[in-house]
Amino acid sequence: MTAAIPFAIPFTNTYARLPERFFAPVAPTPVAAPRLIRVNRDLAGLLGIDPDWLAGPEGVAVLAGNGVPEGAEPLAMAYAGHQFGNRVPQLGDGRAILLGEVIGRDGLRRDIQLKGSGPTPFSRRGDGRAALGPVLREYAVSEAMAALGIPTTRALAAVLTGETVQRETALPGGVLARVASSHIRVGTFQFFAMRGDVDGVRALADHVIGRHDPDLAQAENPYRALLTRVIERQADLVARWLLVGFIHGVMNTDNCAVSGETIDFGPCAFLDAYDPAAVFSAIDENGRYAYGNQPGILHWNLTRFAEALLPLLAPETEDGIAVAQDLLAAFGPRFEAAYYGGLRAKLGLATVRDEDLELAGALLQAMSANRADFTLTFRRLGDAALGPEGDAALRALFADPAAYDAWATRWRARLAAEPMDPAARRAAMNGVNPAFIPRNHRVEAVIEAAIARDDFAPFHELVTVLARPYDDQPAFAAYAEPPQAHERVLRTFCGT
Ligand code: AMP
Ligand code: MG
Questions:
Q1: How far apart are CA 304 and CA 238, in angstroms?
Q2: Angstrom distance (rounded) from CA 257 to CA 261
Q3: Cβ within 8 Å of residue 203, ≥6 positions away
Q4: Is 254 a catalytic residue?
């Protein structure tokens, strides 16, 4: 039995008001011995939750699923999806439970969800639980993404369950409390579309418009406008991913949020050396979700979204298809504008010239051929913008330093064409080129310390450093370094 916890989270739920077939009401399953790992105090405050309460016994009981707070209406959301290209008509929250929604101090509505909180009617053969490692990874990486300024779900808290979960070995169990502007996915639309339930698709679209895009209610055709809006958000998002070297790893349509937030951090990873073909996820055998494939895959996912919306786009299917194709055509230009605009900023350019794309491409080409570290190359360009004394640290990143020299000559000529105070240029560049990303070997190390030694100090330190990715933090300079050869992480696992 879960205990009732008096009102301490200001829930105001809307998803629970949708028709019954949208979800299954289900309470979290209590765990043996909840123990708090970390509470995100700033985020709690934003949500109107007292951080001290959340970190106290009642709060931890809620976070572990041992108590259901007043006003919560726990439920598992129904969804479908395409996994690695294969149609799966029913997935749903198999190990996550939506507690409810709150309106934060900023006036924005957000979901609070527990991940790893026990079985639901959608669990299929799974145990509904999460192992500690993936909980820590999602906490650290999602919070790093937020600090980088990239739309993402957030981590509100992580707890240990005091139970083990059986994966390849027995591992400590954890629960992540996750916050999202909503957990509605492309796959949520597909759930209804795959059943021919047009009323369901419409009710969901109306809910999404009311929640995320109320301005579209006035559009001539709100559903076409919604498709366009989601295309724009997702095009911008994937551009932001590429610009920081992020690889989602499992961009199935059920892991693609219509809010435009990064969601479901499984076998995700950041590039060390620049390599467009980089794949880390152990389950991505064919490299479908490789770093450089992500824009194309997103377009594929958005095409599935358009298919789900088809009956709402026009009365006749053929007309709907024509509309969808027309709207989807905007994805490429939108992505390119965001990506190339971002690359220009990374190079310290404030104006636009045709040859800039070639210049950026030549750098990426040289980085790829010379295994140059993606993050450090761009970060150190800020120093090189001050003058050639910055070049030595950059050259050292290239297997053949002459490859950098040749490019730097062209770059400096281009910079000279738009005079700017070098210190101001460096500051602008450092504001878009992070020093600190959640490097895979660091993430693995904090997981290892937690599992092997019950030591969470490295996790806390990593999260603290990653909260200020654009600041030089000299005391933590080691966190900016790429892995040594023996530290390199070649494979990541979703570890579900
Ligand atoms: P993911 O790969 O984490 O996006 O999950 C894909 C699907 O598998 C979703 O429907 C999840 O809810 C479900 N799932 C993943 N892990 C588990 C688990 N341990 N127990 C039950 N369902 C799970
Ligand atoms: Mg998922």
A1: 17
A2: 6
A3: 18, 19, 22
A4: yes
CB 294 within 8 A of CB 271: no
Q: For 387-417, write each residue's pLDDT tens digit.
A: 999 999 999 999 999 999 999 999 999 999 9
Ligand nearest to the CA of 88: 1
CA 246 – CA 268 distance, rounded (Å): 8
DSSP-derived letter for residue 486 is G
Q: 167 CB less than 6 Å from ligand 1?
A: no
Output b/e per residue, 94-121; b: 16+ Cβ within 10 A: bbbbbbbbbebeeeeebbbbbbbbbbbe
Does the model's pTM come out above 0.85? yes
**Bridge partners, residue 11, by sequence:** 102
Q: Is the pLDDT of residue 28 over 60?
A: yes
The neighbour count for residue 226, using CB atoms within 10 Å, is 24
> Structure tokens of 118?
């026990």
In order, the DSSP letters of 346-366 are HTT--S--TTHHHHHHHHHHH
Instruction: Determine the atom of ligand 1 nearest the C-alpha atom of 129.
Output: 19
Q: Are 94 and 101 in contact (CB under 8 A)?
A: no
Q: Where do the domains of the chain lie?
A: 3-183, 187-339, 348-496
Q: What is the SS3 assignment for 67?
A: strand
Structure confidence by residue, pLDDT tens digits, 171-194: 999 999 999 999 999 999 999 999
Spatial distance between the Cα atoms of 82 and 90, rounded to a whole number of angstroms: 10
380 C-alpha to ligand 1 centroid (Å): 40
